[in-house]
Amino acid sequence: MGKRKIYVLACGGTIAGKAASADDLTGYEAGKTSIGELLDAVPAVSDYAEVKGEQFVNIDSSDMTEALWQALSARIQEVADRDDVDGIVITHGTDTMEETAYYLDLTVHTRKPVVLTGSMRPATAISADGPLNLLEAVQAASDTALGDCGVVIVMNSVIHSARFVEKTDTTHVDTFKGRQMGCLGYMQDGRPMVYQKPLRKHTFSSDLVSPPTLPSVAVVYAYVGLSADDVVSLARGKEGLVMAGLGHGKMPAPVWEALQPLIEEGLVVVRAARAVGGMVTPVPAYEGTVTADSLTPQKAKILLQLALCQTKDLSEIQAFFDAY
């Protein structure tokens, strides 16, 4: 069997970043290296696959937008539907990588591997992690079986599910973790070693699509002193609100009381948690809300947006959160 054909979509980020000196690990500019330069820096990729690529965007991922998500999802779907492509790699900044990965996990429908990667150190740094991450992403995307896992992130030789992964460190290379669910596996000797797969719906089993317009949904972080007026001001005019709640998705009583009129007007409130683990599940005190299960608030926002494109019924929206 010949080499797998891998298509790389470059979106910028630290992996494409440059700094004034080799020991500058934080003062760099992201998105300054082209896809051609990235691939030229890792000639070993050609030992494992036939690689082609394009510069989709070249930005700091803190500047990622929902419109770019929609365009990226559509482009990946076009590439995935081609017979001359076996797997897809997306280079991306780490700040919003987990959100982009989850959006793609829900809206790209394919069994072909879709792998995101990036770096925590710019291309100019001593011990830059980008080249090895890119190589291992190509190696991972070359394994057909990895497509059964949905969209994944491969960094620091670890394979993470888009559903569970989150960035946990501001600067260190082992930033991505999978909370209590753990990772899917590891890269070893040039191939992915997978030990578990996500059971929630994704990619080829997903019924969700990337819409022309995403509903407006806000995320509120609960804290001592949170003003009900501030929450209502932010929520007014929105179709949905995700509360990054205290403990088991709680919120201050004045905030909950102030949200009642908006809920009656059709605002969908999803209760998530600001805690670093655990699930949020239904309780009588918050009847009329949707629960986020184990999704982080930022991922709950994405799922709520896509669910609202299909229904406004709370029980049906809850079913999406129970299935994805």
Tell me briefly what this model is.
The protein is built from nine helices and 14 strands. By secondary structure, the chain is of the alpha/beta class.
Write up this protein.
A hairpin with an 8-residue loop joins strand 7 and strand 8. The relative contact order is 0.12. The longest helix has 15 residues. An eight-stranded mixed beta sheet has the order 2-1-3-4-5-6-9-10. The protein has a four-stranded parallel beta sheet with strand order 11-12-13-14, with helices on both faces. The chain is globular, with a radius of gyration of 20 Å. The mean pLDDT is 97. With 324 residues, it is of the alpha/beta class. It is built from nine helices and 14 strands.
Beta-strand percentage? 15-25%
Q: Give unreliable regions as ranges.
A: none
**N-to-C span:** 35 Å
- Average predicted confidence as pLDDT: 97
How many strand units?
14
* Run of helices and strands: EHHEHEHEHEEEEEEEHEHEEHH
Please give the largest β-sheet: 8 strands, mixed
Placed side by side, the strands forming the largest sheet appear as: 2-1-3-4-5-6-9-10
Number of helices: 9
Shape: globular
Structural class: alpha/beta
- Helix percentage range: 25-40%
What is the C-alpha radius of gyration, as a whole number of Å? 20 Å
